[in-house]
Design brief:
By secondary structure, the protein is an alpha+beta fold. The protein has one domain. It contains one helix and five strands. The longest helix has 17 residues. It is elongated.
Length: 99
């Protein structure tokens, strides 16, 4: 994402994921972008973001964020949720310090 892109977030109701995954809370991200959806070709000035679990081989699962085209619900990106990851690290440190 370019540094000049502006994002705004609007929370929507909880619904099913685009691939029939677990229920998640949906956020619409409005942005200035030149990206197009790879499936339907819609200019992506907004994307639908939701929560998912990312499973890593031989490790625990992590909270993730999915980004989907608002027109056809095609996934256009997935990443680890940095806020949830930070909270998991802090919780883990506190648990070890208490032992």
């Amino acid at each position: 994402m370019a540094e000049t892109e502006a994002l705004t977030y609007e929370r929507h109701a909880t619904q099913r994921g685009p691939l029939g995954g677990s229920a998640r809370t949906i956020f619409t991200m409005n942005m200035t972008s030149n990206a197009n959806c790879p499936k339907c070709g819609t200019v992506l000035t907004t994307v639908t973001a939701g929560h998912t679990q990312i499973n890593v081989a031989f490790a625990e699962s992590y909270n993730g964020i999915t980004y989907a085209c608002p027109s056809c619900q095609t996934l256009v990106g997935i990443e680890m949720d940095p806020i949830a990851l930070k909270n998991d690290i802090i919780d883990g440190l506190f648990q070890r310090l208490r032992k």
